[in-house]
Design brief:
With about 350 residues, the protein is an all-alpha fold. About 75% of the residues lie in helices and about 0% in strands.
């Protein structure tokens, strides 16, 4: 949030020092975007979803949230005069952020209840489906080409998963990691970047957003069990440089000032934020604690991706982008309050 606000301060809404159209900044921002998606996916363990005993209940919870999100998106679209963005609104409203939620509870040792397991799996499912669906609802000029490209990137990601699985099974992956650690070569990180850039090339060849490249690779690595050393290296590279660059440039490219000057956009921000919290409260009717339901509404990666794609494709304005991000900040504020309550229990 601080990085986005820094971009707002020095970008279009503030001092106008940062030029987001500069090619060098755009390149760094795109790499940051891919890395943010890759690290986000590394928090998602697909095996855990299918192995969890609460997967069925979590899936039903998400279906309820998605149905309510679609209805809310229709209402928001017509209330704000942006019916063309209803599909995107629905995906954003139904999304969660595993990258925000999971670390919030990493220090808690006592959460072994079925309700907590349902909550974690539900967040994971929502994050996974929202990120996969987002490119398909981004009002691309050629939806068919996007679908084909997404299929190719997905197939490449599956192939990487199979290759890593094979290398892990015969011991080659473990041997390489040990050799890298002994000699300080960082081979896991180098290989990850090679694969990421390769998937980015494939995505761009089919005019598909590079978010799928980063997300697909992150899932492939996470499904095989991401090594602790690689996780620390990715965190250092991403959070140390590329992720802040992406979020600062994202903030610099949106127009927050215009949101407060246009009542319809301010209404959009409020409806998106409060609407997301409301639809995520539905699982409370099925036994999910209110605190978990509120935290599950946390949004960051999906709204950021929606804004990034929309601004790149020019399907939304910088003012609309500002409203979408303000809506996400409302969910983060609610999440902060709900997560803080855990220390009092």
């Amino acid at each position: 949030v601080g990085e986005i606000l820094a971009g707002v301060l020095f970008g279009r809404s503030g001092f106008k020092i940062i030029d987001v159209t500069a090619p060098n900044l755009n390149l760094l921002g795109q790499l940051g975007f891919a890395l943010v998606m890759m690290v986000t996916a590394s928090h998602i363990d697909v095996r855990r979803i299918f192995a969890a005993k609460t997967a069925g209940k979590a899936g039903v919870n998400f279906v309820l949230i998605l149905a309510a999100a679609v209805l809310a998106a229709v209402g928001i679209g017509f209330a704000t005069g942006q019916s063309q963005n209803i599909p995107m609104f629905a995906v954003v409203l139904a999304s969660s952020s595993a990258a925000v939620v999971l670390p919030s509870f990493s220090a808690e040792k006592g959460f072994k209840s079925p309700a907590f397991s349902t909550f974690i799996v539900q967040v994971t499912i929502a994050d996974l489906i929202a990120i996969v669906a987002l490119p398909l609802v981004s009002r691309s000029a050629n939806t068919g080409a996007v679908a084909i490209g997404a299929g190719v990137v997905t197939a490449a990601s599956v192939a990487i998963y199979v290759l890593l699985r094979w290398a892990q099974g015969n011991g080659d992956w473990k041997h390489m990691r040990q050799f890298s650690a002994q000699h300080g070569f960082g081979l896991e990180l180098r290989l990850s970047f090679i694969l990421l850039l390769g998937l980015i090339w494939v995505a761009q060849s089919f005019a598909v957003t590079i978010m799928l490249a980063g997300f697909g690779l992150g899932l492939a690595i996470a499904a095989n069990g991401i090594p602790h050393r690689l996780a620390k290296q990715l965190f250092a590279v991403s959070e140390g440089f590329f992720s802040p660059v992406f979020f600062v440039l994202l903030g610099a490219g949106i127009n927050v000032t215009a949101v407060f000057q246009q009542p319809a956009l301010l209404l959009l921000a409020l409806l998106l934020g409060l609407g997301a919290i409301t639809v995520h409260l539905l699982p409370v009717l099925r036994g999910l604690p209110v605190r978990f339901a509120v935290v599950s509404s946390a949004q960051l990666g999906v709204p950021a991706a929606a804004v990034s794609i929309g601004l790149t494709n020019r399907t939304i304005t910088d003012a609309q982008a500002g409203a979408i991000m303000l809506g996400a900040l409302i969910t983060l504020a609610a999440t902060a309050v709900a997560a803080a309550a855990k220390s009092k229990n």
